[in-house]
Amino acid sequence: MPDALKVGVAGLGTVGAALVGQIAAQREALAARCGRRIEVVAVCARSKAKNRGVDLKKLRWFSDPVALARDARIDVFVELMGGAGDPAKSAVEAAVGAGKSVVTANKALLARHGIRLAALAEKHHAALNFEAAVGGAIPIVKTLREGMAGNSFERIYGILNGTCNYILTRMEQEKLSFAACLKDAQRLGYAEADPSFDIEGHDTAQKLAILASLAFGTKVDQSAIYVEGISSIAPADLAAADELGYRVKLLGVAMKTPQGIEQRVHPTMVRKDSSIAQVMGVTNAVTVDASGINPLTLVGPGAGGAATASAVLADIGDIARGVRTAPFGRPSDKLKAVRKAPMQRHEGGYYIRLQARDRPGTAAAIATRLAEQEISLESIVQRHVEKNRVDGKAGSVPVILITYATTEDAVRRALAAVTRDRVISGRPQVIRIEKN
Amino acid sequence: MPDALKVGVAGLGTVGAALVGQIAAQREALAARCGRRIEVVAVCARSKAKNRGVDLKKLRWFSDPVALARDARIDVFVELMGGAGDPAKSAVEAAVGAGKSVVTANKALLARHGIRLAALAEKHHAALNFEAAVGGAIPIVKTLREGMAGNSFERIYGILNGTCNYILTRMEQEKLSFAACLKDAQRLGYAEADPSFDIEGHDTAQKLAILASLAFGTKVDQSAIYVEGISSIAPADLAAADELGYRVKLLGVAMKTPQGIEQRVHPTMVRKDSSIAQVMGVTNAVTVDASGINPLTLVGPGAGGAATASAVLADIGDIARGVRTAPFGRPSDKLKAVRKAPMQRHEGGYYIRLQARDRPGTAAAIATRLAEQEISLESIVQRHVEKNRVDGKAGSVPVILITYATTEDAVRRALAAVTRDRVISGRPQVIRIEKN
Question: Which domain holds residue A13?
Answer without folding.
Answer: 5-137+308-334
